[in-house]
Amino acid sequence: MKTFHSILFSGLALFLVLPVFGGATNPVLPFGKMAHSREFEQSLRAIQDPLDPAVFVVGHRGDWRNAPENSLLAIEYCIQRDVEIVEIDVRRTADGVFVLMHDETVNRTTTGEGRVEDMTAAEVAALRLTNGLGNPTELGVPTLRGALLSAKGRVLLNLDKCDDYLSEVVPILRETGTIHQVILKSRRSYEEARLFYGDLLTTIHFMPIIMVDEPDSIKRVDAYLNHLMPLAFELVFQEPDSPNLKTIQNRLEGKSRIWINTLYPELCGRHDDERAIYDPEMIYSWILARGASIIQTDRLDLLIHFLNQKNPSHALVGTQMTEAPTLP
pTM, whole model, 2 decimals? Predict the structure, then answer.
């Protein structure tokens, strides 16, 4: 990945004096990569091809170690360091406006208190995001629309926590011209998803979440492969020797990408980012050997450095692996 600090901080002073990014008028950030970059178009094509060897890095809630989580600045930091996908969380206000917020309440990440679903968009817009130490910043809570416009043509987005509202979210994606660059997901089985979402399933990039350790996980994967052929499957497994994992990996090979989260031990067979601090080669090679070509991380620098070491002459899209790791 190329050095991004000079690009980033040359525009940071200008960013900090702009109006707060809250409410319905979130502007596009004024610095960094231009929209519709060649790298983005290549990423978009590559991620839709399960045979493409690129490995994609996902920034969990943006780059939350250097900016407030789910902020436009956290998204921008990811874009500037060539992270291919940014995961953001979506909640709906009492008056039907979608905003970026992980928790059900605003208590942990803003200067306010209360449940998002009980607050109006104007009330949320009046809040300020806090940093990792809980100190207030000058940044407001972004709307989903503002985040989409800021990321348009620049980075892929994964929207979390909005699977109950797809019928309301998809029109916003269409209006902003971003439906092609957004990945939506759900834990619902194919049969449930078909009933709940209807024809929306065939108009969006949809990713089923598969709880690998559950007895029906293989059956769920087969149902999606037989009827939909999703862009990717998010695999969640607590045990490193989960008996269903290898079967599912074989099922998906050459058909769909595998997304694995290295955020917490219980999501990835105890091969998580915090263990990777001490041995990134062992942890991330293990994840790759399970078929992952999309990895969501809380340690962007660590994972990017590992992938670059695997292949220093990586292509513009993702990180091309010169040889597939083997199962230990």
Answer: 0.87
